[in-house]
Amino acid sequence: MPSANRPINTMLHLRPGDDILPKLKEAGLPGEFIRWADALCIGPTPSGLSETQWRELRARFAADNHFFPYDEALRFLSDQDRNLMRFRDHDRVILWFEHDLFCQVNLIYLLDWFSRRDLRKTKLFLICIAKHLGHLSREKLARLFGTEHEVTAAELDLARRAWQAFCAPDPTGLERLIDDDTTPLPFLRAALLRHLREFPSKENGLNRTERMAMEAVASGESRPDRIFRAVNDREEVFWMTDGIFYPSLKRLAGGPSPLLKVNGADPWPTGNAPITGLTLGLTDTGRAVLRGEADWVKLNGIDRWLGGVHLHGAESAWRWDEENRRSIRS
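Below the sequence we write its predicted structure tokens.
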């Protein structure tokens, strides 16, 4: 029998963002709706931290990149964790996810999180499709309700291994994982491969996002919003918001040897100021890097987290070899 203080047949809908939650409510779906929306596909996710240390690290990353002030980010992360901890108040938890890098990294985090807790009578279900749910009407979203499947032991096991590899201090575990059987989570392999392509390339030190941005500028795009659209048009699966993308442009326009020159702002808007009224062009160094005659990291150094890997110093500890699809030590 259910406990006296637990409603019967309650349901929790969990989404990595709040884009579809109003539509689900409007469609009349039963239950409670919460978001768990930390963008784990960017910034530090090292293993071995306490929950408090984890939230503080993620909040500092958000503040350093001007996503939110530190106190606001910490409060947001704490609130969403408290909401998540109430999962046992419900009989069913339904995870609403899709195929892109943002969603897949959050999915393996949450499946790992649930796998290490006593679910008691709560059952865990998953909706995960090869379309962006935020683009669907409330009627189409409502028709997905009822197609969810109960999360399997194989899915939980793969998510645990994938999250452990994602948080490791080197990327070789991810390579082994995507070379293995990832069929329980059919979109995971492509997402993690896209993550590995965010490591500096062996050719010129640019990662995939940076290279596509530079190529967009070289082709004549100069406005940041148009560069963003040009890059996303070339993505196999859209995963970046402009807030995720613009720090890449800022990095390329900074450092001792910038690859992009900024016209109309000196040198870049600070904080959360809108990126308007400026255009970007290639510097001579930028052209040399695109031609493979110079190396972005060797010129400017690096200080960037990719999951559990901290790349820092005058050289990147790891590079990506696209031809062989392997990480290599520098």
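Residues 11-179 form a domain with the Dna Topoisomerase Vi A Subunit; Chain: A, domain 2 fold (CATH 3.40.1360.10).
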